[in-house]
Design goal:
Rossmann fold, 5-stranded parallel β-sheet, two-stranded antiparallel ribbon, 8 helices, 48% helix
Length: 161
């Protein structure tokens, strides 16, 4: 199963591609958190769970954090992968992971997929666009999505890695 939250659609598009390759059930935590909690508890002990979120303004969305805490014991007894979207790559992305995802989950996860990010400036509200412009130092669109990670996530979901 894949439990995700997506701020501007990049995470959603990424996990939808992986789910399409594997037939994995998706749960959007912005609308299906209760169903996702039930699904986690109903998975067999060898079940695989993906949790996917963006880093937005220096943190992952609170609904994801609440979900993780609510199913903590179930996650710790199953195979877990983290999918994290942020504009940073390499070591900077790993730092973002360590600073935003609960340490118990980082330590337990079998796989971590750092999938890059995407900012389409004209889709942002004015105050957000201003903030993003200050952070990035420019006002052009950014797309660092690592679409080549989709088959790797799909392989993990199928138990091939």
């Amino acid at each position: 199963m894949i439990a995700y939250i997506s701020k501007h659609g990049a995470v959603q598009e990424f996990v939808e591609r992986a789910a399409a390759e594997t037939g994995t059930q998706l749960f959007d935590l912005s609308s299906d958190a209760a169903a996702a909690r039930d699904a986690v508890g109903g998975l067999p002990s060898d079940g695989r769970i993906v949790v996917a979120a963006p880093i937005y303004a220096g943190s992952i969305p609170k609904p994801m954090l609440r979900f993780l805490e609510s199913v903590r014991e179930d996650l710790l007894s199953r195979r877990v992968a983290i999918v994290l979207s942020c504009l940073y790559q390499g070591e900077e992305a790993r730092i973002q992971l360590a600073e935003t995802v609960p340490p118990w989950l980082v330590g337990h996860a079998e796989r971590q997929f750092m999938i890059g990010g995407r900012v389409i400036m004209n889709e942002l509200k004015r105050p957000v666009r201003f903030l993003v412009r200050k952070i990035l130092g420019h006002d052009t669109d950014v797309d660092t999505m690592a679409w080549d990670e989709v088959p790797l996530l799909a392989a993990w979901l199928r138990g091939e890695s």
